[in-house]
Amino acid sequence: MATIVFLHAHPDDECLISGGTIAKYAALGHRLVLVTATDGRHGEKPADVSTPEQLLERRRAELASVTAILGISRHEWLGYVDSGMTGWPQNNDEGAFIRSSVDEAAARLARIVEEERRASDRLVLVGYDWHGNYGHPDHIHVHKVVRRTAELCSVEDLFEVTLNRDFFAEMFEWSKNNGGDNDFDPRQPADDGNPMGEPESMITHHIDVSGYVDAKRRAIAAHASQASDTGFATEMSAESFLRAFGTEWFIKVGALAPSRHTSLLD
């Protein structure tokens, strides 16, 4: 069996873009390891949370619930502070993830990767695409750190989770034409001035997670403190949720694209 190590930027990122894949491979008997780069302290603060410490405690508890829902075998914090969005003053906070050197953060992740590799038949490492899916500075740093970790540990099975820009453009267009009121266009500039995710032509792996959308939905809901950001997903009908979240997309570094591989372990 394989060990699949994901590095995600903040608590809840693991659910939205890879929760189905995590649940699927865990159910198939593989070992799933989640590493969370930051503490998520600059996420949404619900009304019943009055201090930053309470929010951190809440988010830690929520993520502990998610690991059980998705079947994650091991969770580790990489130990950095949430950097906030592009241009926020928190970008300069002491301990902010984006202030860490790539080599320093990669060395921390490499220790986990090497521990896992010693006990595994095969190790797969997963980060983010080149601009972190939508340009969040912590997400971009995840991309760089995972790439460097793969170099340090000579990881051959290196993947980057992405969002299928063409799929979501079609989905939002369909929704608008069928009475939806969301005018979001993933082809428009996101946080870093680039469109969301990657086009179909860059994607190598399409993972069918339709059998695991219930677990994914429960995991998203477990991050209840962030409902103002993620509630749109849990409020969808079952049919709409399946349509939007029944596939997850990855790019295998070094593989030819486009292609339609259906397993990270081909």
Compact summary:
The protein contains 8 helices and 7 strands. The protein has 266 residues and is an alpha/beta fold. Helix 1 packs across helix 6 (213-222) and helix 3 (102-118) packs across helix 4.
CATH topology name: Rossmann fold
What's the N-to-C terminus distance? 13 Å
The biggest sheet amounts to:
7 strands, mixed
Helix content: 40-55%
Round the mean pLDDT to the nearest integer and report it. 94
Number of helices: 8
Provide the structure class: alpha/beta
Describe this structure in words.
There is one protein chain. This protein has 266 residues and is α/β, with parallel strands linked by helices. Helices cover 40% and strands 17% of the residues. The chain has a single domain, classed as Rossmann fold (3-Layer(aba) Sandwich), CATH 3.40.50.10320. The radius of gyration is 18 Å and the shape is globular. It starts with a strand and ends in a 14-residue tail after the last strand. The mean pLDDT is 94.
SSE layout:
Blueprint: E1 2-8, H1 13-27, E2 31-38, H2 52-70, E3 74-80, H3 102-118, E4 122-128, H4 137-153, E5 157-162, H5 165-177, E6 205-208, H6 213-222, H7 227-234, H8 238-245, E7 247-252
Parallel strand pairs: 1-2, 1-4, 2-3, 4-5
Antiparallel strand pairs: 5-7, 6-7
Relevant terms:
7-stranded mixed beta sheet, 7 strands, single chain, Rossmann fold, 266 residues, alpha/beta, globular
